[in-house]
Design goal:
By secondary structure, the protein is an alpha/beta fold. The chain contains 13 helices and six strands. Strand 3, helix 7 and strand 4 form a beta-alpha-beta unit. Helix 1 crosses helix 3, helix 2 packs parallel to helix 5 and helix 5 runs parallel beside helix 6. The longest helix has 23 residues. It is globular, with a radius of gyration of 20 Å. The two termini are about 25 Å apart. About 45% of the residues are buried.
């Protein structure tokens, strides 16, 4: 995978404001035919970042509208034992991952399976296929136990959650590999924007890296590329020094924070790793409406020039190790604005690819 070149291709981030999985997938294939992704439609609660990955975990009760793992359930110990028995049967005995609790299914997997259907019908091959799982910090601090305590602080539940996310990521990568494409799986970690604040004061860098690395290992086991997406700013040095292959950051709003780590960025790029530049804003509708393709091209050129100047890496190399992306998903926007984000991403990418 170290020979994989991003070459300024466009890449999208998870969500769209649509009702139809079929139409959403077609829209993705229209704007990013080389590296499309399966879409989460947050209109459906079961496709939210947290609910989508809850089923199969010990303590989960289907039909609950809460992100809850209840350890007080009489059957919890039995569920916990069954979870780890199945995990071991897959990781050590080669049991079928595709029919396990670690795969998406039912209403929570509609976007994924519609994506595979359209990929299988697509006449031209894809360079890569992109999927995503919710990051362990975001997931572990959003799901509660019966005492309303974050499961990240419960060693049993945290371990189960990380393993669930890790094997789901591996399952996605396996499905993509079967179709002859490079698997790209993003670990979506919006909670890392709050890392170091009082809300996460007891979570250390070691906690973050150990949790994410377990997921990375499973993605790499399927010869996939592991990426992370953080919506805003974070302590980038901890991610730049990890086993991640792709780091996705909000270049439009937070490049000035990201560039504070030039030596770490240089070491990261020297390993042939990839930056995903979130140059197209997705926050406020009025800000998006003000953007032009040429303006974003100029902004990104200026940022890459600064990176080249501070790291000594030539700009052509930087572009070859870069994706062009929106700054975040578009699920909270109206559809016309979301389509504008997709169009700007495609057009900015085309300019850099021509270069």
């Amino acid at each position: 995978m170290k020979n994989f070149k991003a070459n300024g291709l466009p890449l999208l981030i998870g969500s769209l404001p649509m009702e139809s999985h079929e139409k959403a997938t077609k829209l993705v294939l229209e704007y990013t035919p080389d590296i499309p992704l399966w879409v989460q439609l947050p209109l459906y609660r079961e496709e939210g970042m947290v609910p989508q990955f809850l089923p199969g975990l010990p303590g989960f009760t289907n039909g609950s509208d809460k992100n809850l793992l209840d350890t007080s359930k009489p059957e919890f110990n039995e569920e916990f034992l069954a979870f780890f028995e199945e995990y071991i049967s897959i990781t050590e005995s080669g049991a079928d991952l595709c029919t396990s609790r670690f795969a998406l299914s039912g209403a929570r997997g509609k976007g994924f399976f519609e994506f595979l259907k359209q990929i299988d019908e697509k006449k031209s091959p894809c360079i890569a296929l992109k999927g995503q799982v919710t990051g362990p910090i975001t997931f572990g601090t959003a799901v509660k136990d019966e005492n309303n305590k974050d499961i990240f602080y419960n060693d049993q539940l945290k371990d189960a959650a990380i393993k669930k996310l890790a094997l789901n990521a591996r399952w996605q990568a396996h499905e993509f590999s079967k179709r002859g494409a490079v698997p790209i799986i993003f670990i979506d970690e919006p909670a890392l924007a709050g890392f170091g604040t009082s809300a996460y004061i007891t979570i250390t860098k070691e906690d973050v890296i150990q949790s994410i690395e377990e997921i990375i290992l499973e993605i790499h086991a399927e010869n996939g590329l592991a990426g992370v997406h953080v919506c805003a700013n974070t302590e980038w040095d901890m991610l730049l020094g990890s086993g991640l292959d792709i780091i996705s950051f909000d270049a439009f709003s937070f490049f000035d924070r990201f560039i504070l780590y030039p030596e770490r960025i240089k070491a990261y790029l020297d390993q042939k790793k990839i930056l995903a530049w979130g140059i197209v804003p997705t926050g406020k509708k009025e800000v998006i409406a003000e953007q032009t393709t040429q303006g974003l091209i100029q902004l990104l050129h200026a940022q890459m020039d600064e990176l080249a100047d501070k790291t000594g890496i030539d700009k052509e190399t930087i572009i070859s190790q870069s994706f062009i992306t929106p700054s975040c998903g578009t699920g909270s926007l109206d559809l016309d604005t979301a389509k504008m984000v997709l169009r700007l991403t495609k057009e900015v990418s085309a300019a850099f690819r021509q270069r």
